[in-house]
Amino acid sequence: MVEKIPVRVEKSSTTALEHSLVSKKEARVAEKQPAIEDIRNKIAHEAVSTDTYEDYDSSPEEEDEQTAEEAFVNKEIKQMAYSRTLSRVRKQMSPTERSMSRLIHLPVVEELSETAAATVGRPSGLIGAGILAFFGSIIYYFTVKQAGYDYDFFVFLVLMAAGFAAGIFIELISRLVRPHH
User: Fold this and answer.
1) How confident is residue 141, by pLDDT bands cut at 50, 70 and 90?
2) Is the dihedral of CA 142, 144, 145, 151 positive or negative?
3) pTM for this entry
């Protein structure tokens, strides 16, 4: 099934070279035409109809099982990636840094650190501690100097603890009054 392409050739403007280029082009097109038809026939033969495709659809129960397995695998992969990253970074550290890193990244130490960060590192507690310690120390300093006593630095620590407790208490009250959704 070779299709001929009409070529308009004017005798005065064409040379033998141009004529040979046109005939080579026609030959290439004629060679490719059967290959394209073979590809189309192969696609039509191997194509799956939509009716057949719907039979391969997975059921919802199978999808739930797959997601449960994937969740387990993801946690395992994350742990492996974490340990590989730690070992890769430790190779670049000095021996003292490496031993400190091993101590810091022990599971017990990391758990304590995360717990402390969630409780002690509360922004409201830190803000309360800073504000009360600052203003309380200024008031205490001028009061002590006015009365002629020595400044006790322990009062600063007590004011920080009291400010931290007050900040946490205020946060607790504000969450009880207007809960987050």
Assistant:
1) very high
2) negative
3) 0.40
